[in-house]
Amino acid sequence: MKIYNTLTQKKEEFIPVEENKVRMYVCGPTVYNYIHIGNARPAIFFDTVRRYFEYKGYKVNYVSNFTDVDDKIIKRAIEEGVDASVISERFIKEFRTDMKALNVKEATYHPKATEEIEGMIEMIKTLIDKGYAYEKDGTVYFRARSFKDYGKLSKKNIDDLEAGARIAVSELKEDPMDFVLWKPKKEGEPSWPSPWGDGRPGWHIECSVMSSKYLGEQIDIHGGGEDLIFPHHENEIAQSEAATGKEFARYWMHNAFINIDNKKMSKSEGNFFTVRDICKEYSGQVLRFFMLNAHYRSPLNFSRDLMEAAANSLERILTCVGQLDYLLKNDSVKDGDLTAKEEAVLKEADLLREKFEAAMDDDFNTADAIAAIFELVKLANINCGTDKNKKFILSMKERIVSLCDILGIETEKEEEILPEEIEKLIEERQEARKNKDYAKADKIRDELLKKGIILEDTKEGVRWKRK
């Protein structure tokens, strides 16, 4: 398995720190609002990475944090006249609702920054003792230049960096590139006692501490959006490696941005969409499928036309699995041994599974993996019918479902019970067709279509689906 490592800017063979185990840390949301579709991309992608590692037999310790103390949370709390924890807890709950809709599994651990303050204070003390950090008037800064490899992830030369780009400038700093580890308390803000006075941690130290507590000082994979490469992940490396003297993460993975109708997503442009907004029009499964149809390192353009195309493509897979389920319940399909032709088709299906795995082994190329699933769907559509035996049909279904499951695509639709009047109309149409009264049958079909029910006449019988 090869992974593109942002640190080395090349694909590398995956070799875990500990055999058959994967330690993954993915930066989670700052919980002050509903997550937007840009936040959803890393959540969906790294969940898929985790699922594939588990499929390959690895035991995965997957950690994704909640940043539950932050200027944006505090600002919203002041606006609403409530405690900051009320805001963060509300949006942690909403985040979990969105993740359920996207079929993103719960992390092994979801630590909250506010519950790990003690560990942050200890790491800051270590950095001060080692000469990597200093305190000025209650603020503790990290000496960026004291870490000789600063800039190795973002490929930025510290001398070329302009203070003020994404760095807060302060007269208290020894150097403009130094960044905050601890900040003093302000009136009305949450704070914790520390050796440097009451205050709260800087953003970067939070992830270093939560990662080391739940995964150990050295981890396999650290992931997030490409906007986090600098300064967040660069600063994580500096403070973690300065504190421990060990390599922090072996592989750094970053997903690309999402554009809206080929424009950068922004509230000022009026093209800012939350996951909750999108899920009013499309299912979370369609959004997940849409995201996985592009390679994670490629920018992804979001538009309604592309979402419609994703919905139609996903429906092809679901329809195929539904048809296989229908055949398995059909009395015409008999039990028995596989024929030579059926065995040959299953061997072809196994080659497509290998094609899927080859795509995923090549830096998690989900787009090519989905293409392999569509080939499998086509194979099933051509070769599965009432003249085949149940063992063969079940084997084909299991192959499709298992690969979809790796991508987090749910293939089983909840069985829907139609209203009695609709059932009665379908029966009347069947009777009309039996009596060769095709005019009446067509009239009933049109009536059902107006009610949002599409009928499909197949050789196995009539089937229906919602418009």
From TrEMBL:
Gene3D superfamilies named among the record's database cross-references: Cysteine-tRNA ligase, C-terminal anti-codon recognition domain (1.20.120.1910), HUPs (3.40.50.620)
Keywords: Aminoacyl-tRNA synthetase, ATP-binding, Coiled coil, Cytoplasm, Ligase, Metal-binding, Nucleotide-binding, Protein biosynthesis, Zinc
Family annotation (SMART domains): DALR_2
Binding site for ATP: K267
Positions of Zn(2+) binding: C27, C207, H232, E236
GO MF annotation list: ATP binding; cysteine-tRNA ligase activity; zinc ion binding
Cofactor(s) this protein cannot do without: Zn(2+)
EC numbers for this chain: 6.1.1.16
Coiled-coil ranges from the UniProt annotation: 415-442
Main location: cytoplasm
The protein's name: Cysteine--tRNA ligase
Organism whose genome encodes this protein: Herbinix hemicellulosilytica
Gene transcribed to yield this protein: cysS
